[in-house]
Amino acid sequence: MVSKAVIVLIIGLLGMVYQATQLPAPKSNDYDSVVDDEENGFMVSTRIQLSDGRFLAYRESGVTKDKAKHSIIVVHGFGSSKDMNFPAPQELIDELGVYILHYDRAGYGQSDPNPKRSLKSEALDIEELADQLQIGSKFHVIGVSMGSYATWSCLNYIPNRLAGVAMIAPTINYEWPSLPQSLVRDDYRRKLIKIAMWLARYSPTLLHWWVSQKWLPSNSVIEKNPAFFNKRDIEILERIPGFPMLTKEKLRHEVVYNTLRGDWMTAFGNWEFDPMKLSNPFPQNNRSSVHIWQGYEDKVVPSQIQRFISEKLPWIQYHEVVDGGHLIVHYSGLGEAILKALLLGEEDISYKPRSSSISVS
């Protein structure tokens, strides 16, 4: 039987990965494409039907498509949804002419589950969404936390459709073959993920029963745990919503549990490609069009691993928040810096990483 302490740590890890994606509710001036489902008596999001028959729900914000100079698709992370709001000043969005497309990934929100979820299916969902909504032959993609595995997939499967990419505190798959063992061997996060993967693969019923037990710590306890969050993260958690999809009540629902389990297994399972073997999808550009934003004090994804990846892929521009944890997406000013770097090539020197390199044996 797996010990209580290990399960508590696994739940904490699940929670903190999710928490990075939970953003304040959209402002009232965001326009939300909804239709009234009179038959069921509630408002449902506008959806498209994919070529395989599944429906994908979406929400639009920013300027309208006909006025857009830049189109951005935002990929939410673990346990989140299209209702996340990218935290950039409305004045800047209007000035740059940014159209933002949020969508529920398969099984989340009001999108149908995909029992065949894979790295490739995540990228193809994004491509088909862009085509059906006619946002242009090229678009930008921003992935948040675990949603960044779909962003890596876009770089591999649909690089010709990309105008630029940003990944905010992207989670790491410790099984990537190019990650040196000396860098990850003793990382406790790797061990926790391996235990969670084993349970999810070989004993999903036991895991489902266990994560909904009353003795597990509440979300509020996890949110205040310094083992998971740094000081700035904990301050953020005092003013933003919790993670409702990971409550014991929600996890009792099989459809919620299956979506989270499938997403987790795709993100941390065996990938069909090695990200560190990817080629620069923008060789013609004089500036970097791919960005990683990372907190130096991130306790979910170690900054030294992100640095290693960006050093091995010099076409990725690496930005670091010196006192940042995993919740940097919430930090004041970061959304503005991300848009200016991604769309204009402007670097804010306050996010320039400290001068150091990662040495591995």
From TrEMBL:
GO function terms (MF aspect)? aminopeptidase activity
Could you tell me the keywords of this UniProt record?
A: Aminopeptidase, Hydrolase, Protease, Signal
Q: Which residues form the signal peptide?
A: 1-20
UniProt-listed SUPFAM superfamilies: alpha/beta-Hydrolases (SSF53474)
Using the record's annotation, list all stretches that form the AB hydrolase-1 domain.
72-329
Superkingdom of origin = Eukaryota
Listed Gene3D superfamilies: alpha/beta hydrolase
Chloroplast among keywords: no
Q: What protein is this chain from?
A: Alpha/beta hydrolase family protein
The species this protein belongs to is Medicago truncatula
Q: Which gene encodes it?
A: 11446348
